[in-house]
Specification:
Blueprint: H1 10-23, H2 39-50, H3 60-68, H4 73-87, H5 97-109, H6 119-124, H7 134-138, H8 140-154, H9 159-167, H10 169-177, H11 195-205, H12 216-225, H13 237-252, H14 262-268
Helix pairs in contact: 2-4, 2-8, 4-5, 4-8, 8-11, 9-10, 10-11, 12-13
């Protein structure tokens, strides 16, 4: 993270809206009251984007436009809202809020419908939450694919099961870890391929339990550097990070950030100056 970190927490407001409208209902982030995050439209988006992989295109956007050609307006909007969720984690130095907004509006605009991102949700796109790293960028289609597969399989769960997972971060994590890759795009991929988006989703929904660290390398370096604070032995990296955060906050007397605090950063990141 970096300057303006105090504004990071506005992104979690948007994440809560996604939970309430998309996960608890079939509603829309951009046009509340319109069915967008339903099994019907998620299934069609999966078919067009994740199963229709032989479409040619020079770059992500040209291929995406061709894959989605002829889609109902709701599917274009769902793709735009999926991009929005994907973009929430990305720190402003990696992608400016204006770029995120422009990309989302471009996709929705392909349908010809007059739908725009509400102002309160536009402002949340800056500054973002975490620096995702190059892998997150070059595998954008796979990370977006995770959101679609996650949401479609979420809709298959009963209301009671959904409520349990939304009340228990560890149950929610178990579901996210158990997402089955069914699409042509992901079915032959290792589950670790979409770890970054999974970590991002866990943090967005349960920021007090799961860290905004979406790099496997950084997670390993941090837990290794501060292993002395893991007083209750466990192989679970998320639980190790919980113990480390608690110990460091006792030392520094306030909520710490593994990236912004130079004393902390220098202990796990040898390249930091």
């Amino acid at each position: 993270m970096g300057d303006g970190v105090e504004n990071v927490y506005t992104a979690y407001t948007a994440a809560k809206a996604w939970v309430e409208r998309a996960l608890k209902a079939d509603d829309s982030l951009f046009t509340p009251g319109r069915e967008i995050w339903s099994s019907r439209w998620l299934g069609e988006l999966r078919e067009r984007l994740l199963d229709n992989t032989n479409v040619e295109g020079s770059g992500f956007w040209e291929k995406l436009e061709r894959q989605m050609e002829g889609s109902p307006p709701q599917v274009y909007q769902l793709m735009g809202e999926t991009l929005y969720v994907h973009y929430l984690i990305i720190w402003h130095s990696a992608m400016k809020g204006e770029t995120k907004e422009s990309n989302i509006n471009k996709v929705i605009g392909w349908s010809g419908q007059a739908v725009t991102i509400p102002d309160d949700l536009v402002s949340v796109l800056t500054p973002g939450i975490a620096k995702p790293g190059m892998y997150f960028t070059i595998t954008r289609h796979l990370q977006i694919g995770f959101i679609i597969e996650f949401a479609e399989q979420w809709k298959e769960q009963g209301t009671g099961e959904q409520n349990l997972m939304l009340s228990d971060p560890w149950e929610f994590r178990a579901f996210a870890e158990g997402v089955e890759f069914r699409s042509a795009l992901l079915r032959d991929k290792s589950p670790s391929t979409t770890n970054a988006q999974r970590y991002a989703t866990l943090n967005l929904v349960f920021p007090d339990t799961f860290e905004a660290i979406i790099s496997n390398d950084h997670r390993s370096k941090i837990t290794e550097a501060f292993q002395r604070y893991v007083t209750q032995p466990t192989d679970d990296v998320d639980r190790q990070l919980q113990q480390i955060r608690s110990a460091l906050e006792a030392v520094y007397g306030s909520r710490i950030n593994f990236y912004d605090n130079p004393e902390i950063r220098s202990q796990w990141d040898p390249s930091y100056t």
